[in-house]
């Protein structure tokens, strides 16, 4: 299932129309569904692929929530410029945010991966998000702040 972040329809978005043209395919899971409904969490739960394509650091929670709530071994297609990419690089199919051909190819790959590869990527994404949670993030921040303070004190 393709999901669009905003409420624009594919006809209103030239890049979405181009992507849809390049992604006219039918997989063994049925036709591609372009879903722009309102229940975002439900869509992430039942999607076969989740496209997170931010131009700059952002959309971290979308990628991470998708990894946690998905129940269909959905594959994450993730922009290299998203903030979550460093953490989820090995658990996703990477894309460049402005490259519609690469994005279409990545979505095709995500939708046609064998079940065992889909399971491996989705499990790895879920484990990465669960391992590096808010507590870990805060601990890293405190450690980094302490290192800066110590280096400033040692330099004086």
Please tell me about this protein's structure.
The protein has 156 residues and is of the alpha/beta class. It has one domain (2-155): Rossmann fold (3-Layer(aba) Sandwich). The protein is built from seven helices and seven strands, in the order E-H-E-E-E-H-E-H-E-H-E-H-H-H. It has helices at residues 14-22, 40-46, 60-69, 85-88, 100-112, 115-131, 134-155; strands at residues 2-3, 26-27, 30-31, 34-35, 49-52, 75-79, 92-95. The strands form three sheets. A three-stranded parallel β-sheet has the order 5-6-7, sandwiched between helices. The longest helix is centred in the last third of the chain and has 22 residues, at 134-155. The N and C termini lie far apart (57 Å). 28% of the residues are buried. Residues 1-12 and 24-31 have low confidence and may be disordered.
Question: How far from one another are the termini?
Answer: 57 Å
Radius of gyration: 18 Å
Domain count: the total is: 1
In the CATH hierarchy, the architecture is 3-Layer(aba) Sandwich
Write the element-wise H/E pattern from the N-terminal end onward: EHEEEHEHEHEHHH
Mean pLDDT: 78
Distinct helical segment count: 7
* Biggest sheet record: 3 strands, parallel
| Percent of sequence in beta strands | 5-15%
Q: CATH superfamily assignment?
A: Glycogen Phosphorylase B
């Amino acid at each position: 299932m393709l999901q669009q972040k905003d409420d624009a329809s594919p006809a209103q978005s030239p890049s979405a129309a181009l992507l849809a043209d390049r992604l006219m395919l039918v997989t063994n899971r049925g036709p591609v569904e372009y879903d722009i409904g309102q229940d975002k969490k439900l869509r992430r739960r039942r999607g076969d692929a989740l496209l997170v394509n931010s131009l700059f650091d952002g959309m971290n929670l979308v990628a991470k929530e998708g990894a946690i709530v998905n129940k269909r071994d959905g594959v994450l297609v993730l922009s290299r410029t998203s903030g979550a990419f460093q953490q989820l690089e090995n658990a996703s199919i990477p894309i460049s945010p402005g490259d519609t051909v690469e994005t279409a190819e990545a979505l095709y790959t995500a939708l046609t991966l064998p079940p065992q590869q889909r399971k491996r990527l989705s499990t790895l994404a879920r484990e990465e998000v669960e391992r590096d949670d808010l507590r870990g993030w805060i601990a890293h921040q405190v450690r980094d702040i302490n290192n800066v303070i110590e280096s400033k004190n040692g330099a004086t």
